[in-house]
Amino acid sequence: MDFRILVIIFSCFLLLLGCQSNNIVRKTHLSLELDEINGIKKYQEEEYEEAFELLKTPATWGYKGAQYVMAFMFLKRPTR
Fold first, then answer.
1. How far apart are the first and last CA of the chain?
2. Phi-psi region of 21 (alpha: psi -120 to 50; beta: other; left: phi over 0)
3. Which of 9, 27, 66, 69 is the most buried (most CB within 10 A)?
């Protein structure tokens, strides 16, 4: 009887540990579209670091404009 209670308590403990929050950040389509638009504007203004930061999330999510501009940023980067 005591072993069953111990197993139930341990199982509940493991279940609660499995339910902890992870570091997933949810973004809306609107925020992704705004990041894409603003990133493209920053690219056109030749502010490449800001453009990269704005475009990396929409590009990861499959936004074609962001992927296109990021590809140009990598192709046209200065050589050292």
1. 71
2. beta
3. 66
